[in-house]
Design a protein that fits this description.
This protein is mainly alpha-helical. The chain has one domain: Winged helix-like DNA-binding domain superfamily/Winged helix DNA-binding domain (Arc Repressor Mutant, subunit A). It is 51% helix and 11% strand. It has a three-stranded antiparallel beta sheet with strand order 1-3-2. The longest helix is centred in the middle third of the chain and has 14 residues. The two termini are 18 Å apart. The mean pLDDT is 91.
Length: 89
Amino acid sequence: MKELRFSGRETAILRAIDFANGSMGAEILVKTKIDAEEALDVLNGLLDVGYIETNPPQQEHVERKAFYRMIFEVNPAFAHQLKKALVRH
């Protein structure tokens, strides 16, 4: 299995997402202190590769106007790998 590697911003955002319940976009911004546009780009990238999902699973690409109230969750298929990768980082 391929080892996952993330940038600093990706790591910060993944750590900000509650693995059990997910986190709203606004919560992620508060926890990470990353600019909203940059956070949205990172989240959309993580959505594109399937590491995270939206709840309800309606969107493949999140727009800025919906971002703050959208709930982001870790994809259960990658949860174990993501936790291991975040410990290494």
